[in-house]
Amino acid sequence: MKIMEEDLCACEERETFLEDELQRLRSELSARADLEKQNMDKIRGWLARARSIIQTQKEVLQFSESEISVLKSNNEDLKTQTNIALADLKKEEDRLTLKTEFMRWNVRRFTLELWKRSKQVLRTLMLLSSYEMEAKADKDMLPTPQLSPADIQAVAEPEFSLRGFRSCLISPTREGRWWWEDSNAKERGLHKGNIKDESMSGNGNGAVHADGSAAIANIFDPKDNAESRIY
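Structure tokens predicted for 5'-adenylylsulfate reductase 2, chloroplastic (231 residues):
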């Protein structure tokens, strides 16, 4: 009987020990569970922050791509505007060049018309010729490069015909002399005739040269032209 009581007491003590041990294990397990929960919460917070950072980086990247696209578009627009401006500038330069050429031509044409209509054109041509300029200098002094000796002839001959002169021939390279120049001078412009032709013909006004061509009349001869005294 006593042995059974001792065994019963031992069983109760063991049961109490096991219950205490079970309670300790439960407490420890609960503490570990709380710790793991805290760790999980931390991990969830870290993941949330990481997701937020990734989302922010994505938005920044998208904004950067959008900004880059806008900058590229602006760059293309700037290039287009620059090309348009350069094209407009080229057109304006071409227009100004043409306008300048036209104004120069207009001035030359206007000057030529003034020369054609002026009664002093022959005196001016005689003045230019009296300085014995070279052919190029004579050409540069004319109102326009397109005015050839034939044009001068066409302008001068009707004027002299109206004044009663029988002949008016102009040649910037014809050999001869003016009536007031020495025999070695080269004749330019309005002249009284070729010395060589006159020497071959042996006559004065109205003579015929050796080659059959008509001699040039002496427009400065007072006998034939009274108006020649004014020159």
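The radius of gyration is 60 Å.
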